[in-house]
């Protein structure tokens, strides 16, 4: 009886181990084939999630800032009034100087005037 159990285990291992190895290889092959599709799906989900999150953040910011608009207009109006009332500062001279040489050519012309005096008798 013991010999039959050992023989059954041996034959079972001869059949079971290759089937397990074959199943592992098939799962690995399917995972490698589907890996690019999984990566593309992850990239698309990430991009859409970021886009939806950015739009949601902009909308939430706009909704939160709408009640503050009267305060913004009031402060902006006060700032404009202060700018209009305040005396304008004198224009500043630039401290940045450029070192360029200017050559001026002057031509001196001399005009001589000859006057002749004639006397008539």
Defining key terms:
single chain, 121 residues, mainly alpha
User: Helicity level, as a percent range?
Assistant: 55-70%
Mean pLDDT: 83
Order of helices and strands: HH
Rg calculated over all Cα atoms: 48 Å
Q: Overall 3D geometry?
A: elongated
Q: What's the main sheet like? A: none
Q: What is the β-strand count? A: 0
Q: Given the structure, what is the number of helices? A: 2
In percent terms, what proportion of residues is strand? under 5%
Terminal CA distance reads: 177 Å
- Residue ranges: pLDDT <50 for 5 or more in a row? none
Class from helix and strand fractions: mainly alpha
Task: Describe the structure in your own words.
It contains 2 helices and no strands. The relative contact order is 0.03. With 121 residues, it is mainly α. The mean pLDDT is 83.
Short summary:
This protein has helices spanning 2-65, 69-85. The chain has 121 residues and is an all-alpha fold. It starts with a helix and ends in a 36-residue tail after the last helix.
Topology:
Layout: H1 2-65, H2 69-85
